[in-house]
Each structure stands twice: as C-alpha cells, then as structure tokens.
C-alpha cells in the first residue's frame, strides 16, 4: 500500500529541520562541535532561538542529530562499497571497508572529527547513537565471520589468548553469528583500531612530512592488515 502523501506542514517541518542541520554542520567546520551554538544557527537562518528549540530542544539534541547522521552516512558508504565486492573475495571486501572509511573521512573531515575526534566537553552521547556507530564495525566483523567460516585463520596474533582477554572481548566475539574465535576477535579489534587510528593520524595532521604519499601508504597498511587477518 503506498504511503500517504506528506502534508504541507510536514514537508515544511522536514525542510526546516534539514536547514537547521545544514547550518549546524557549517558551524562544525568553522568553530568545532564544542562551540556549536543554537543561537548562531538561529541567526544564520533568521529565526528566533525559541523557534529552533521547537525542533531541537537543546544544543545536545542538535549535536546528537548531527552525530547520528554522520555515523549513518559513513556506515552507508562503507556498506555500499563492501556489497559491491564478490562475497568470496575476502581481501577485496576488507579493502572496500577500509578504503570506504578513509574516503568518507577525507571527504567529510569535520564530520569525522565529530564522531571520531576528541569528546565534546559536557556532552554524553545517548543510546540512540549506538546502532549507527556500530555499522562499520559490523561490516568489518562480518568479513571476519565469513573468513572464519571459510577456514581462514589470522596469520598474526597470540598463540594462546588468555582467559582474561577472552572475557574482555566477549561482546566483540558475540557481535556476529556464529561468534568469532578469540584469535579472530583479537586481530579484528587490532585491525579496527589500526584502521581508524591511521585515518585519524592523517586527518589531524600527524603524518605531515612523515609520509609523502598518503594514498600509497594507506593501501600498504590495508593490505598488511589483510595479511595479518588471514584474508590473502
């Protein structure tokens, strides 16, 4: 059954919500998330602050909407890239996930900083952000689950995972079905941290003059991680 057409009022509300989010996103690029101001958004849109608060009841609510949108946009980009690769090409799928993260981050540096940069003082992300935040993680762990099912094993990692570490990584192992082995969970979390750490180092300027060709070096790192994960 086709959805009922939106009323003019609903359309106007959606358009104004979009305008508020776009104005706030521009602020992020100019002053950073810690200085995000509802009053500044209102001035930009020539609205009263009280009118903006009818759409977003607080600065934190506006920040949460921006964070969820950024996580979902990144997740969608990574999922689309990974789905385009043949299922049996495990290294290709891992490359798609990794390059999908970096490509999106390079294209949206301020939104990446919002989700993966320094925490905003005084802001606590609500539970609404959890599912969007885990979309990239799920894409990566799904590749590892399929690698495990295909009989692959990590090429690098501890010969024996201590019991305390198994307990610590329980949520990671159980994130996919069937669960990951402790060895895959350790290497998967290491690869995840390396991927995002490397992207953050590049975007926040910590590789400047240390790496002369970011594209080439990142591709090398991604392929090394694929080998470590047993995907080659």
- pLDDT under 50 segments (min length 5)? none
Order of helices and strands: HHHHHHHHHHHH
Largest sheet: none
Distance between the termini: 47 Å
Helix content: 55-70%
Shape: elongated
Q: Overall pLDDT, averaged?
A: 94
Number of helices, counting only DSSP H or I runs of 4 residues or more: 12
**Count of individual beta strands:** 0
Strand content: under 5%
Rg, rounded, reads 21 Å
Structural class: mainly alpha
In brief, what are we looking at here?
This protein has twelve helices and no strands.
Can you characterise this structure?
With 232 residues, the protein is an all-alpha fold. It is 66% helix and 0% strand. The longest helix has 25 residues, at 59-83. The N and C termini lie far apart (47 Å). The mean pLDDT is 94.
List descriptors.
mainly alpha; 0% strand; 12 helices; elongated; 232 residues
Element layout with pairings:
Layout: H1 8-31, H2 38-45, H3 49-53, H4 59-83, H5 90-107, H6 109-116, H7 130-133, H8 135-149, H9 163-168, H10 170-173, H11 182-203, H12 214-228
Helix pairs in contact: 1-2, 4-5, 4-6, 5-6, 5-8, 5-11, 5-12, 8-11, 11-12
């Amino acid at each position: 059954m086709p959805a009922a057409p939106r009323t003019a009022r609903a359309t106007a509300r959606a358009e104004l919500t979009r305008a508020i989010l776009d104005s706030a996103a521009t602020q992020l690029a100019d002053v950073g998330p810690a200085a995000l101001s509802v009053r500044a958004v209102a001035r930009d849109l020539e609205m009263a602050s009280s009118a903006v608060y009818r759409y977003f009841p607080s600065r934190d609510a506006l920040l949460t909407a921006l964070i969820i949108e950024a996580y979902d946009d990144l997740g969608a980009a990574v999922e689309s890239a990974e789905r385009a690769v043949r299922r049996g090409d495990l290294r290709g799928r891992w490359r798609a996930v990794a390059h999908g993260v970096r490509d999106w981050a390079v294209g949206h540096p301020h939104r990446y900083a919002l989700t993966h940069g320094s925490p905003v003082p005084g802001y606590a992300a609500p539970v609404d952000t959890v599912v969007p935040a885990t979309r990239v993680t799920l894409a990566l762990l799904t590749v590892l689950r399929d690698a495990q099912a295909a009989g692959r094993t990590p090429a690098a990692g501890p010969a024996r995972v201590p019991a305390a570490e198994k307990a610590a990584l329980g949520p990671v192992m159980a994130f996919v079905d069937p669960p990951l082995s402790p060895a895959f969970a350790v290497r998967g979390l290491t690869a995840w941290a390396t991927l995002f750490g490397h992207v953050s180092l590049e975007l926040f300027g910590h590789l400047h003059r240390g790496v002369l060709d970011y594209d080439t070096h990142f591709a090398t790192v991604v392929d090394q991680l694929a080998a470590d994960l047993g995907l080659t």
